[in-house]
Amino acid sequence: MKKVFSVIAILVISLLFATGCKKEEAKVEKPVPAIQTQEKAQTAEGTVNAEENCGKAYDFMKAFVDQIEQQMAKQGKQIPNKKEFPPKDKFIKACKELPKEIIICLDMEYSMKHQQECQEAKKNADPEKMKKFEEMLK
Hints:
The protein is an all-alpha fold. The protein contains nine helices and no strands.
């Protein structure tokens, strides 16, 4: 079950950085000049409240895991070796060590609206910091 939680947690993180969203694909947007996009990203980056963003990400991920567990229980499936979700304070502490670009992208609404920026942020993030955060979820 430990691996199930790890897979779910990593799946949620990956989902936050997902490239395709049918809702987004349906939109036809006018191209935004790169300078304007960069200014928006810098503005958003400057207003990141790590405590708030990390707390929201925790609440979302915890609710997601709880929902999966409830669905499994309804289907009569037993959750073998159930592992508790990491405590919120531990999650927030690890999350706050991530770059601001990643922290803001943990917000599902923001990441869906700024998919390209979030993909770039993940691609450019320090792999050790990302690994450390993902390890905390296992």
